[in-house]
Amino acid sequence: FPEAAALGKPVVGRELDIHPQPGNHPLYRSILVPEEWIPAGDLRRHLSRHLHETHRLYRRVLQPEEIDAAMGTLRHGGHVDFGNLTETLQRGILMRLRDDPSLRPVIGGKPADEWLREALGQPPASYTGEGIPEEAYGDELISCYGSLAGRPDEPMGNLAPESVLDAYLSPENFHFLRTCPTRIRAVIFDIYGTLLISPPGAVKADPAFDPVLRDILSASGHDLGASPTSVLHAAVRHHHAESGHAHPEIDLLRIWQEVLGTAEDLTDLVTKIEKAWHPCQPMPRARETLLRLSGEGVMLGVLSNAQANTLPTLDGILGPVTPLLAPELTTLSYHHGIAKPSPELFRMLARRLEDHGISPAETLFVGNDPRQDILPAQEAGFRTALFAGHPGSVRPGVCTPDLTLRSLSEIPSATSSF
Fold first, then answer.
1. Which residues sit opposite 338 in a β-bridge?
2. Residue 75: what are its φ and ψ, rounded to 5°?
3. CA 288, 291, 296, 302: dihedral to nearest 10 degrees?
4. Is the dihedral of CA 337, 251, 201, 318 positive or negative?
5. Strands of the 79-81 sheet, one edge to the other
6. How far from each other are the two terminal CA atoms of the chain, in whole angstroms?
7. Is the peptide bond before 341 cis (omega within 30 degrees of 0)?
8. Are residue 236 and residue 361 in the same domain, yes or no?
9. What are the respective helix, strand and coil percentages of the chain, to the nearest 5?
10. What is the value of pTM for the model shown?
11. Count: domains in the chain
12. What would the pLDDT profile of 142-186 be if each residue is shown by its tens digit?
């Protein structure tokens, strides 16, 4: 660190294997934080995703026991090194420290603030004006490669590339900074609460809406009595009970045909009802974000609890954006009879992405619901972005997304940060 020494300033830094002569600078090997500061399962999930992606890019097959071994490398007596975490996990720890100043990481066996005060109290290192000779630096670098490959005394020219790669990928040497950066090649959106501002859309008995619904039905020659919403709700509950799925979904068009006792096409009627019952507005920046991502060559899709009127509604509000969506990456719950957070919908999407040569780690899922969007997407291996940019979008639940968005316009630049 010659600059700090030349200016007579104190300096602290992380000690790395490549530092030939650390001198008398206060350097640390790790900043330890309790593993319990990281939500349960998040560390292993991040580790597994990075290892799978790195091995895939190097055309290697990751063995399950390597994940366990790498987890052992990360742990230090119930602690983990803050510097060997992903930025997402680091961000969560920093927010925790911000919210509770009494929490303290550990450096050199001491609370971090105590270690830092002592380090900054040391006199600055003297500066001789002599840098590290290029040849000495090169020798040190070669020595690092040799040590990595387990052959510290062999000349560089004798090191087989495979032996270096073997060591690089070995669990004992795992570090998140050594994993390959991921390029986001596909972005999948939830629709309601993410691309569209909308009230909760579940079918329920709704006395306040009954008069409006009676008028709409009457104009179409139908009558369901005093409370048509109750009749519809009962039919939905019956179908859910008969489905056998943990997360059942209905086809709203068929339900309406059933309760009205008709086989006619009710698309226009259902669209009119939904527009009145669950009116939607455009989410700010949604259209321009879709256009920009598409223009940059990112594949786009949707995975949403949705009905036959959803895509026409999306186009009607945002303009013609559905042509930007890959049809095979358009997953709507009513097509499959199951709803989010069913893992099967996300596994289905992953298989379709795989047909394009796109892995889950190269896919960003954007949604506003921790339980229905973020957690199942993470379970399937996707990168995740929690959209919290509108008061009506906030849903209950605890999650640790890769990104938290205040505006959809953050997505194009955020995709390059992985």
1. 248
2. -85, 140
3. 110
4. positive
5. 75-76, 79-81, 32-34, 106-107, 110-111
6. 29
7. yes
8. no
9. 50, 10, 40
10. 0.70
11. 3
12. 777 777 666 666 666 666 777 777 877 888 778 887 776 678 999
